[in-house]
């Protein structure tokens, strides 16, 4: 009588077994989603309260690029923003605290997002949760900082160029904040492109070869997106979004290539052991 084959307990589980271990019933998925949303919401609310305390300082920081260009062009003796209603300064501070809270809590929010997605990935990919959260937040904040230090100054330089000795700007603080907020969020999202493509490469949805073939079309898309998302029609402002998008896309191709190379080595190693 043949003896049953003993399975090595130390052997690595198969890829299908790894995915199977991460699967949940539908109701469990809903419960997991509820917990992740709750945790992210708690982090966001705490960040909002902290940012509200510093909202005046944050707004002063956001006004600096505009005021520097204003002084350089010598439009008026001292630059200023006005409010058009009695309650506008309060709501500006509230809006600042809300949007700054998104950036401040973004590492924890991205981590919760990864923890929700991770059960559907392979074991080696689930370990990337902390790295994903950190780099997602870093890229998101880097996009916002690029907008603050480069894009806002470029837009202000172009738009304030329409002023002269008889025409002086009178800018409302709420409208200025809305412009800055939308731009910073847009650039924060654009700077997430490498991580998005890296994740797609991990799941096998894209490869470095397919990304490279699409490169010339992406350049066209980048300039179209830059023309749509930037508020001014001048070429320099549009380039501030189009050029980073193209550079980030090509960085993504390199990241996808590292994923493909690693998979090829693992496949070759597995074939040699069989």
Distance between the termini: 27 Å
Strand order of the largest sheet: 1-2
Instruction: State the major sheet.
Output: 2 strands, parallel
Give the helix level as a range of percent: over 70%
* SSE arrangement, N to C: HHHEHHHEHHHHH
Question: Low-confidence parts, pLDDT < 50 over ≥5 residues?
Answer: 4-11, 17-22
How many DSSP helices? Answer: 11
Strand content: under 5%
Describe what this molecule looks like in 3D.
This protein is mainly alpha-helical and 274 residues long. The chain has a two-stranded parallel sheet. Helix 8 packs parallel to helix 11. It starts with 14 loop residues before the first helix and ends with a helix. 26% of the residues are buried.
Concise structural overview:
With 274 residues, the chain is mainly alpha-helical.
